[in-house]
Specification:
Catalytic activity: uridine(55) in tRNA = pseudouridine(55) in tRNA
Keywords: Isomerase, tRNA processing
Low-confidence stretches: none
Domain tRNA pseudouridylate synthase B C-terminal: 148-213
CATH architecture of the largest domain: 2-Layer Sandwich
Domain Pseudouridine synthase II N-terminal: 2-147
Mean pLDDT: 92
Shape: globular
Oligomer: single chain
Domain tRNA pseudouridine synthase II TruB subfamily 1 C-terminal: 219-276
Number of helices: 7
Length: 281
């Protein structure tokens, strides 16, 4: 591992066709990766109109070809139907499990499994361009939303069929597009540090985001060091500035050092849920 972390994990797989943002949690930050799995996502997608495939993307086989004959008004109306809270039937070509096996394994065997519609929210669906038989959109959606399924359903609403030919995840939670780094860039930094004889951390540390950033949507509660000592031992503690309920990020002292996540107990105390463990070198 370039970062010499004792453990690492990613926060949600991308489709084989997809590119873009994949947050990586290192060390103690892996304890808080679940909050990114549950977060909103933003995608840029290009669809090919007039062709429907069995996987709803360009990796599949074309199963139906139809002419593209809708108007801009038809498109606007169809797009509007996807905005807000809706129900979505997941694709058979997805990693959702049925009896311990991912659905795509059944799909590759030609087996269709009944899937229950699941609630999703499309917070924003922005029209970018429609040129020839290509349609480009930007979609801000809740977790568990399948962009391929939106495009397939959109193609059916328009009467021509459609499938994804480009999909890029441009945002996860509050992480900006500009903070993305490629593996090639990391290897370049490693080479430069080695050749210059400088500590690798000086090149890599500026790329790291705060450990509590996966939970940045939760309110922060600050407690003094004396109280933090009890919290670190797993004991519920009092905090005068805590909200009435829910999960909170807990920080210590004037430096506001992140020490873990807590849930507000019935008596108003902070009950530890995830703690940051500091390892000694």
């Amino acid at each position: 591992c370039i970062f010499n972390a004792n453990r690492a994990g990613h926060t949600g797989a991308l489709d084989p066709l997809a590119t873009g943002m994949l947050p990586i949690c290192l060390g103690e930050a892996t304890k808080f990766s679940q909050y990114l799995l549950d977060s909103d996502k933003r995608y840029r997608v290009i669809a090919r109109l007039g062709e429907r495939t069995d996987t709803s993307d360009a990796d599949g086989n074309v199963v139906q070809t139809r002419p593209v004959s809708f108007s801009q008004a038809d498109l606007d109306s169809a797009l509007e139907s996807f905005r807000g809270e809706t129900l979505q039937v997941p694709s058979m070509f997805s990693a959702l499990k049925h009896q311990g096996r991912p659905l795509y394994e059944y799909a590759r065997q030609g087996i269709e499994i009944a899937r229950e519609p699941r609630p999703i929210t499309v917070y924003e669906l922005q029209f970018i361009r429609w040129q020839d038989n290509e349609l480009e959109l930007e979609i801000h959606c809740s977790k568990g939303t399948y962009i391929r399924t939106i495009i397939d359903d959109l193609g059916e609403k328009l009467g021509c069929g459609a499938h994804v030919i480009m999909l890029r995840r441009v945002q996860v939670a509050r992480y900006p597009y500009e903070r993305m780094v490629t593996l090639e860039q990391l290897n370049t930094l490693l080479t430069e540090a080695t050749e210059a004889g400088i500590p690798l951390e000086t090149q890599l540390d500026p790329l790291l985001l705060p450990m509590d950033s996966p939970a940045s949507d939760f309110p922060e509660v600050n407690i003094p060091p004396a109280v933090a000592d009890f919290f670190r031992q797993g004991q519920p503690v009092q905090a005068s500035n805590a909200p009435a309920q829910g999960l909170v990020r807990v920080s210590e002292g004037e430096a506001r050092k992140f020490i873990g996540m807590a849930e507000i107990a019935d008596d108003g105390r902070l009950a530890p849920r995830r703690l940051v463990v500091e390892y000694q070198d």
